[in-house]
Design goal:
By secondary structure, the protein is mostly helical. Helix content is 50%, strand content 0%. It contains 18 helices and no strands.
């Protein structure tokens, strides 16, 4: 290595990308997926090593739908040393991949998904983003991971949220193309100097899924804490953007359920233990919200039909959809496709379900063609590697 060679930090690398995009760098090409595929033939837009004797199908030439022959030509090699790392990488990459698969069809109806079900990675769609683009769900999740990596404090998380919103840090291409209203309002309050944990909305209308979607890292970071310490940490992180008890209890439930999956329990046993945890630790502060969680706390969620599941951005609908999907799927791929094909808030539900499924089934169960397609996979891997070290205490 040359003496003057400097390895930029993740923040510095993100800043370089942001400045590049603002200076005119482009992120879209006519066939962006093809150019990153092992079958690509340079200078030949109509053919490739797969479609050699015939022209590429229109959905490949004008990429909106997935190409079954795609495989990324610059894959990262993920080094997994043990079961713990398998669950961390599985959970975090599982979250990101679910997010990226859901982005192109966010807000589509269930009827639309039934007529045209998602089967693989897609592009463009709702936000006209290229293959593998993840949303604010992943951005705000890695804001939390970065803060933990640097020595957790709620102030560091808040600062990362501001950098995300104002400067485009922690985004795929230096631009915030999707952010919830409650999250935006809370970040504006942070910028105005309000104490971070006072910025989250506390009205009933503020119970979107914006804190649930970014809480997963707490399951790894806080799994050795006492019950009350874990609850306090989860409440603090949720309250940055969502301070209502309903949102906080949803986060507590999801974090504890993820911990039970990390500990190796099977699905139904993990659910039983999580319900016991809630009944033992949350009655005093949250009993008034238990009625809203009755399908979950009674375990009826496991036996509901698809028609009884809502897939909106309301935090209860989201948590129910995630649990229903997880219990009715077999494998990571099946979990993600079931989640997305519910329609509605597809990226968030698929991301949250993908986090749990990635922990349960492991990194190797995530399809490589999906994993290798996600934007900034090298930077994410670097951040997750450090997170593995930091949380191994």
């Amino acid at each position: 290595m040359h003496e003057n060679y400097k390895v930029n930090s993740l923040i510095e690398r993100w800043n370089v990308d942001v400045q590049s995009y603002r200076s005119g760098a482009k992120t879209l090409a006519s066939v962006p997926q093809c150019e990153t595929c092992t079958n690509y033939i340079r200078g030949n837009a109509l053919h490739c090593n797969c479609y050699n004797s015939e022209r590429k199908p229109k959905y490949v030439l004008f990429p909106k739908k997935e190409c079954p022959a795609y495989y990324n030509n610059s894959p990262i090699n993920l080094k997994i040393q043990n079961d713990r790392e398998n669950k961390i990488y599985g959970g975090l990459f599982g979250f990101c991949v679910g997010d990226a698969l859901g982005v192109p069809v966010e807000f589509s109806t269930r009827e639309e998904r039934e007529k045209d079900p998602i089967k693989e990675m897609r592009a463009y769609g709702t936000y006209h983003q290229p293959f593998g683009t993840w949303s604010d769900d992943t951005s705000l999740t890695i804001c939390l991971i970065d803060a933990i990596n640097r020595g957790y404090s709620i102030k560091k998380v808040a600062e990362n949220f501001v950098n995300f919103y104002e400067k485009g840090y922690f985004t795929p291409y230096g631009d915030v193309f999707d952010i919830g209203n409650s999250t935006r309002n809370a970040i504006i309050e942070i910028c105005a100097g309000i104490s971070p944990i006072e910025c989250g909305g506390r009205a009933e209308i503020d119970n979107g899924n914006g804190s649930l979607m970014r809480i997963l890292p707490i399951a790894f970071y806080g799994k050795k804490l006492s019950g009350q310490e874990l609850i306090q940490l989860t409440e603090e992180v949720s309250s940055l953007t969502h301070g209502h008890n309903r949102s906080k209890l949803a986060c507590i439930f999801y974090v504890e359920f993820a911990i039970q999956i990390i500990l190796g329990y099977e699905k139904e046993k993990a659910l039983d233990r999580t319900i016991d945890f809630i009944n033992s630790n949350c009655v005093k502060a949250y009993f008034g919200e238990f009625e809203n969680f009755k399908k979950i706390l009674s375990k009826k969620i496991v036996n509901l039909t698809k028609d009884e599941i809502k897939s909106s951005g309301y935090v209860i609908d989201t948590l129910e959809a995630v649990l229903w999907t997880f219990f009715h799927a077999n494998g990571y791929r099946d979990t993600i496709l079931k989640a997305i094909n519910l329609g509605g808030d597809t990226d968030t539900i698929a991301a949250i379900a993908g986090g749990i499924a990635g922990i349960y089934y492991g990194l190797n169960d995530i399809p490589q063609e999906w994993l290798q397609s996600i934007a900034k996979k090298e930077e994410l891997y670097q951040m997750f590697e450090q997170f593995c070290v930091v949380t191994n205490t």
